[in-house]
Automatic annotation (TrEMBL):
<keyword id="KW-0472">Membrane</keyword>
<dbReference type="GO" id="GO:0016787">
    <property type="term" value="F:hydrolase activity"/>
</dbReference>
<keyword id="KW-1133">Transmembrane helix</keyword>
<feature type="transmembrane region" description="Helical">
    <location>
        <begin position="156"/>
        <end position="176"/>
    </location>
</feature>
<feature type="transmembrane region" description="Helical">
    <location>
        <begin position="91"/>
        <end position="119"/>
    </location>
</feature>
<feature type="transmembrane region" description="Helical">
    <location>
        <begin position="60"/>
        <end position="79"/>
    </location>
</feature>
<dbReference type="Pfam" id="PF04307">
    <property type="entry name" value="YdjM"/>
</dbReference>
<keyword id="KW-0812">Transmembrane</keyword>
<dbReference type="InterPro" id="IPR007404">
    <property type="entry name" value="YdjM-like"/>
</dbReference>
<protein>
    <submittedName>
        <fullName>Metal-dependent hydrolase</fullName>
    </submittedName>
</protein>
<keyword id="KW-0378">Hydrolase</keyword>
Length: 183
């Protein structure tokens, strides 16, 4: 898996492309939660559920289906008044993207058994053809080691640079729109 830091930065950078009324602290915080929530499945180890099980690590919680459900549930819980309009759709899409970004990043890592992207309809695990992100160790204590430092280095390149470019391009786009509106 990519680290919690990498997942959180991905969600934060995704927020930059959404309209200002959506980019509230609460929305971005919920987006960050969506981006790390799929790793709740590490609790399965405590219950003796094997990694490769549908309910194991990188199983159902790492699927597009789960990402969709999270988007719908969060809009229903926190933004019910927006359920039937474009703002609700945009919020749900942002939450979906944040959760789905977890799938993409984990499918780009160098370890594990793959990601059950299409669960529960297809339980096969997948990786992307390019896997440059070093897999993060599970557990906070294991992260603060040389291996954790190597994970951060790879994430700075493969998550940090693209995320920063998204933020910069989004800022330039907003400035461009403001300058066009003034003229």
């Amino acid at each position: 898996m990519a680290s919690l830091f990498g997942h959180a930065f991905a969600a934060s950078s995704l927020a930059s492309v959404f309209p200002p009324e959506i980019k509230t602290f609460k929305v971005i915080l919920l987006g960050i939660i969506c981006s790390v929530l799929p790793d709740i499945d590490v609790l399965a180890f405590s219950f003796g559920i094997p990694y490769e099980n549908l309910w194991g690590h990188r199983g159902i919680t790492h699927s597009l289906f789960f990402s969709f459900l999270i988007g719908v549930i969060l809009v229903g819980l926190f933004y019910r008044k927006f359920l039937n309009n474009k703002a609700g759709l945009a919020l749900g899409f942002y939450f979906f993207l944040c959760s789905a970004s977890h799938i993409i990043l984990d499918a780009m890592t160098t370890g594990g058994l793959g990601v059950a992207v299409f669960a529960p309809f297809d339980t096969q695990r997948y990786f992307l053809p390019v896997r440059p992100i070093k897999v993060s160790p599970i557990g906070v204590g294991n992260f603060f080691t040389d291996r954790g430092l190597n994970v951060i280095k790879s994430e700075l390149i493969w998550i940090g640079i693209p995320g920063t470019l998204i933020i910069i391009l989004s800022l330039f786009s907003q400035l461009w729109k403001k300058s066009k509106a003034k003229s």
